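Lab manual, section 2.4: Encoding a predicted structure.

Procedure: take the sequence of the chain (356 residues), apply the prediction step described in section 2.3, and record the output as structure tokens. A sample record is shown.
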Amino acid sequence: MAMEPRHEAAFPLSSPIAAVILLVLSTACALWLPAAGPAAAATAAAPAGRAAPVRCELSAYVSDLYDIDPAKGRFSARLWIWTICPDRRADPLPKISFANADDPGTSEPNIIEQDGHVLDQVRVQSSFRQAWDVRDFPFDHHRIEVILTAPDDTDHFRFTVNNADAQTNPEIRPQGWRLTGFRLVSATKHYTTTYGDHSLKNGSTYDQVHIRMDLERSDPTIFWKLTIPLYLAVLIAVSTFLVSTRHEELETTARLEGIHNRLGVLGGGLFVVVLNMQQASDVVTSADGLTLIDRLHLTTLAFLLVAVAGTVLAWRWTSHGGSTTLAERISHRGAWCGLAAYVAACGALVLLAACR
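Recorded output:
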């Protein structure tokens, strides 16, 4: 019986051709793997190529608050500021900027290295610019701020505020004011300019810390000093309408002379109100609109002008033969009604300012 021939592999492992193929493949792998390794590692490390910004903890202690002057848009403060940074190079206090300070004076830094961190303490004293809204004086409340700006942009430096350690001196008693709140707030400030750093494409952003203090007035004495002349002018004006001459034997000329005297008193009242309004503007100045003091002055001026108009009408009535008795009766009732309207208007203005 004839036997079938046995088929062997085309390229047996022991053949020279197979050996050559294996040698080529091994060489290629040896050359590819070292080249691919650094490329893959560089690709993986690209997202983490930019270092995280350095963070420093910041806190503050306000030791004094004084010279609070809304008319000049200023207040003065003395405070301690400290930072805790991972190393001395990251310390921002030597280059920190006070955004709303006039000419800050700082003490020599007190640097302490502890627990692998660097503590830097500095005392700051200055007057600070502040926008004030005094339209509701003397019921106005204010939030004043000391604004600190980091020396580097947010890509390189960030603040972490520590409100637990931030405090104010419990003995702070600003004249005419009461301190009602205090805290530190983180914020950012964006500038459209890059300050010459061409690596920044959309401007630059800097970290800020706002040291906020809430104030309210504690002494209404100034309010009464500014408004008592108004009330006196109104009471004197009303009294001139309530002096009765109906039961006196007076000639018409004498009655007309009384009306002229009333006009003189009202003119004097107008002068007092206008002068007092100018003095009040030096004490309570607002760029946001009319203040409560302005509205009270304008209401008083309106009352006195109506009184002048009523007096002129009464004079024309009696000078053309009208009844002086009727004129006096109308004047008396008008004076009481005008006084009631004046009190109601002023009360409403004060109540609105107190509740706002």
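Check your result against the sample. The longest strand covers residues 54-69.
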